[in-house]
Amino acid sequence: MKSILVWDWSIRVSHWLMVLLFTGLIITGRFERAYFDYHFYLGYSLSALVVFRVIYGFYGSRYAKFSQFIKAPKVVVHYLRSFLKGKPNRHLGHNPLGALMVVALLIGLTLQWGSGLFTSDDLFWTGPLNAYLAEDWQSWMAWLHHVLPDILLWLVGLHVAAVFYHELCLKERLVSAMIHGKKRTHQARPESITTPRWGVLFALLMGGAWLVWLWLLPV
């Protein structure tokens, strides 16, 4: 087996930053007023990171692209059957089920930070875009923002369980791959990915521009 680079530095860094920011948001969200300023800034940072990852999903390295790992439903079903039999096919990038988890988490996180921009407790804090919505929509956004964390935690738990299954049962070292970026393969002539400079720069500029715009909004 040969070891090749699959996840470039931008994917690895953004992955672990999402872990840290999401953890910080869960913690600060539980403390209500005590750390809520930090909650806002962590949410802004996470939103910029998600913007970066979505842009990079179109202009990034080979295995970071949505077009590479999002598969047709029949492919997902076929993989699910092989997974339930304990003999799933190996994939250098995301497997079809892992791809669904990536999409679900990105959508869930986007809904979470997006709803937070419109949410208010009508007393101590107000999202920067709250005034732009009608009262009914404000209530719906507040409900969504309070319900989604539990759903996201379940998704994260499922994701971690799947990683442990691959690590312990399938002997596929996913955790270390997300640290050094390399995976082992049986391919005769494996090709390591390269990081597209302009893709990274464009995604960073879009994420940075979004973050600056949020910081300039009055709270």
Topology:
Elements: E1 2-5, H1 9-30, H2 36-59, H3 66-69, H4 73-84, H5 96-116, H6 135-168, H7 174-180, E2 182-185, H8 197-216
Helix pairs in contact: 1-2, 2-5, 2-8, 5-6
Describe the structure.
There is one protein chain. By secondary structure, the chain is mainly alpha-helical. It has one domain: Up-down Bundle (Fumarate Reductase Cytochrome B subunit), CATH 1.20.950.20. It has 8 helices and 2 strands. A two-stranded antiparallel sheet has the order 1-2. Helix 2 packs across helix 5 and helix 2 packs antiparallel against helix 8. The longest helix has 34 residues. The chain is globular and about 60 Å long. The mean pLDDT is 88.
Compact description:
Keywords: Cell membrane, Membrane, Transmembrane, Transmembrane helix. The protein has 219 residues and is mainly alpha-helical. The protein contains eight helices and two strands, in the order βαααααααβα.
List keywords for this structure.
219 residues; mainly alpha; Fumarate Reductase Cytochrome B subunit; two-stranded antiparallel ribbon
State the total count of DSSP E strands.
2
- Helix content estimate: 55-70%
Strand content: under 5%
Contiguous low-pLDDT stretches (5 residues minimum) are: none
Spatial shape: globular
